[in-house]
Design a protein that fits this description.
DsrC/TusE, cytoplasm, sulfur carrier activity, Sulfurtransferase TusE, DsrC-like_C, mainly alpha, single chain, 2 strands, two-stranded antiparallel ribbon
Length: about 100
């Protein structure tokens, strides 16, 4: 585990830059993380990110794309439109969560 400085905050990250401490994330950090991968967050992006953030504590793992679609009610097609290629990985990164299981 490493420590990175993002938006003036010292944050714990893994080797791929995903935050490893759930409580280090906030909405302002989401904007900064999204900007780093070329995404400007809209209300629809934020809905997906909030679903991931709310789902994680109960399940102990980051929701898969399928779970976001089925349980979160955001169609997979829309997730690809919002986040581009590899939407699950990008959503997890912006949400400050570990990369979803099975994501390469």
């Amino acid at each position: 585990m490493s420590v990175a400085t993002i938006a003036g905050h010292q944050l714990h990250v893994d080797g791929e830059g995903f935050l490893t401490e759930y409580d280090e994330w906030d909405e302002a950090l989401a904007d900064e993380l999204a900007a780093r991968i070329g995404i400007t967050l809209t209300d629809r992006h934020r809905a997906a990110i909030r679903f991931l953030r709310n789902d994680f504590p109960a399940r102990g793992e980051t929701a898969t794309l399928r779970r976001v679609a089925v349980v979160g009610g955001i169609p997979v097609k829309e997730l690809f439109e919002l986040f581009g290629a590899k939407p699950a990985k990008k959503m997890a990164y912006i949400a400050g969560l570990p990369k979803p299981r099975g994501c390469v």
